[in-house]
Specification:
- With 267 residues, the protein is an alpha+beta fold.
- Among the domains are: 83 residues, Arc Repressor Mutant, subunit A (Orthogonal Bundle), CATH 1.10.10; 61 residues, no CATH class.
- The chain is built from 11 helices and 9 strands.
- α3 packs across α4, α6 packs across α8 and α9 packs across α11.
């Protein structure tokens, strides 16, 4: 019978024996003794179970009472009834996507009306007139805020605002330093016309409105009565500003502006 002889060590192995340091306890994994395929399967199950636990935890959480739609609706209710809104006014409440989705939900629920692209208002009804659309001024204010542009009433609309003309224009025109376009809402049309920097220099001030109104009625139709009317309509501050801005008006208008400001009562 053959006997098993232990392997003889060489002289070098006897001089430098091999040592194997033990693994620290912190590095020992419970799956280290399993085969590679088994370890892969258990790891997948572990990851999936963790994902399912996180998902079930999220689904189990109660929905916040302060949802974007409710917060937007509360803010709208605090605003004047004629206010026109746009999404940018609510970005401090949530993300743009959440705000857009909330506005769409409010429209579907009937709490809001989509007035034009990106513009919204709360529906109002009159017993005799039916649904009331917002005013031109409210829509223009929302357009200026949404697009970050300046708007200046022009033509017959400016004259009508100053009560220099009783004619109500079929199309409301604003000068703008933004893109020219037309905005339709209900039966009304607002036309935005691109204007030169000089024409827009007094935009948003009473000076710009007065210049636009006088330009519409024309030099031949500026009477003592109309000058007296504007002098009474404008505040002392607005009248002083007319003189400060006088170079923004055409030369033929200067004597009339001075008279409105009460610097020269004669035409």
């Amino acid at each position: 019978m053959a006997t098993h002889r232990p392997k003889t060590q060489t002289k070098s192995e006897r001089r430098h024996p091999k040592t194997y340091p033990a693994s620290p306890a912190s590095l020992e994994w419970p799956i280290s003794s399993l085969s590679r395929s088994t370890r892969r399967g258990q790891l997948g199950e572990l990851i999936m179970s963790e994902k399912e636990a996180i998902l079930s935890d999220v689904m189990a959480r109660p929905k916040s009472k302060n949802s974007a739609a409710k917060r937007i609706q509360r803010r709208m209710q605090k605003a004047p009834a004629d206010t026109v809104f746009y999404a940018g006014q609510f970005l401090d409440l949530d993300t743009r996507t959440a705000v857009d989705q909330a506005l769409s939900r409010l429209v579907r629920a009937g709490a809001l009306r989509r007035l034009a692209r990106g513009l919204y208002h709360r529906p109002r009804r009159h017993a005799a007139l039916g649904e009331i659309t917002p005013s031109v001024e409210a829509v223009a204010k929302a357009l200026a805020g949404r697009d970050r542009v300046r708007l200046q009433p022009f033509g017959g609309y400016a004259a009508n605002l100053l009560r220099l003309s009783e004619q109500v224009p079929a199309r409301v025109v604003f000068l703008t330093d933004g893109k020219p376009r037309k905005v339709r809402f209900g039966r009304q049309v607002i036309e935005l016309r691109r204007a030169s920097p000089r024409m827009m220099a007094a935009a948003g001030r009473m000076t710009g409105l007065v210049i636009a109104g006088l330009r519409f009625i024309g030099k031949a139709n500026i009477s003592l009565e109309r000058v007296a009317h504007l002098r009474k309509l404008l505040s002392p501050r607005d009248r002083r500003r007319l003189i400060e801005d006088i170079l923004l008006a055409p030369a033929w208008m200067h004597p009339h502006l001075r008279s409105i400001a009460n610097e020269d009562k004669a035409l």
